[in-house]
C-alpha cells in the first residue's frame, strides 16, 4: 500500500495487491489477491473485490458493491500505446452504485453507470448504463430480467408489484425499468 492511501477500519487486503496513493477504501471492505486500486479511486463501505481485479482511475464503487474474480474495468475510450492517455482529464468516470454486482470475467467499459442493485452476469460486456435492479448478460450486455437488492430474481407476471424474500416491494415501471418501493 502506498503512502497516502486511505483504508477504512476493518477492511482486509490480501497479498500481492497494490493500493495507490490517493485511493480511498471505506470500512469493512475485502480486497482480494492480486487487486490493483489506482490513485483517485473511491471505494465505499462493505465492498467486496475478488481476486485479479484492477480498479482504474475514474472508477467509483459505492457501498456494498461486489466485483467478481477477474472482472475488468476500462478507463480510456480510445487507448493507443504510441499516444498514451495518462492524465485524469483523459479518463471517463465509471460509477457503480450501491449494491450492484459484477460477475466473474465481465467487462465494464468506461463511462457507464451501473445503477443501484444492477446485476451483471459472468462474462458480460457492459457498453451502456444498466438500470436499477436490472440483470444484464451477453456480449454486448442486454437486459434479461430483474433482481432485488437481496438477490431474488423478480418475476412480475401479470402483477405490477412483487415482494422479495426480505420483504421489500418492487414496482415494474416498464419492460426495462423497476423501482424499489420499500
Automatic annotation (TrEMBL):
Keywords: Acyltransferase, Transferase
Domain of life: Bacteria
EC number: 2.3.1.-
Gene Ontology molecular function: acyltransferase activity
InterPro entries tied to this protein: Hexapep (IPR001451), Trans_hexapeptide_repeat (IPR050179), Trimer_LpxA-like_sf (IPR011004)
Record Pfam families: Hexapep, Hexapep_2
UniProt enzyme class: transferase
Entries under PANTHER family matching the protein: ACETYLTRANSFERASE (PTHR43300), ACYL-[ACYL-CARRIER-PROTEIN]--UDP-N-ACETYLGLUCOSAMINE O-ACYLTRANSFERASE (PTHR43300:SF4)
Protein's recorded name: Acyltransferase
Natural source organism: Deinococcus lacus
Amino acid at each position: 500500500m502506498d503512502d497516502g492511501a486511505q483504508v477504512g477500519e476493518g477492511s482486509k487486503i490480501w497479498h500481492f495487491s497494490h493500493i495507490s496513493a490517493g485511493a480511498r477504501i471505506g470500512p469493512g471492505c475485502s480486497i482480494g489477491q492480486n487487486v490493483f486500486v489506482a490513485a483517485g479511486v473511491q471505494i465505499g463501505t462493505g465492498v467486496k473485490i475478488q481476486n485479479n481485479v484492477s480498479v482504474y482511475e475514474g472508477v467509483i464503487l459505492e457501498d456494498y458493491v461486489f466485483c467478481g474474480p477477474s472482472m475488468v474495468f476500462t478507463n480510456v475510450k480510445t487507448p493507443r500505446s504510441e499516444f498514451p492517455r495518462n492524465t485524469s482529464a483523459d479518463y471517463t468516470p465509471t460509477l457503480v452504485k450501491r449494491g450492484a454486482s459484477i460477475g466473474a470475467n465481465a467487462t465494464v467499459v468506461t463511462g457507464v453507470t451501473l445503477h443501484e442493485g444492477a446485476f451483471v452476469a459472468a462474462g458480460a460486456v457492459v457498453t451502456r448504463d444498466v438500470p436499477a435492479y436490472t440483470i444484464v448478460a451477453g456480449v454486448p450486455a442486454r437486459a434479461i430480467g430483474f433482481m432485488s437488492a437481496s438477490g431474488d430474481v423478480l418475476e412480475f407476471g401479470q402483477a405490477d408489484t412483487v415482494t422479495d424474500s426480505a420483504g421489500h416491494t418492487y414496482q415494474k415501471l416498464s419492460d426495462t425499468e423497476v423501482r424499489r418501493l420499500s
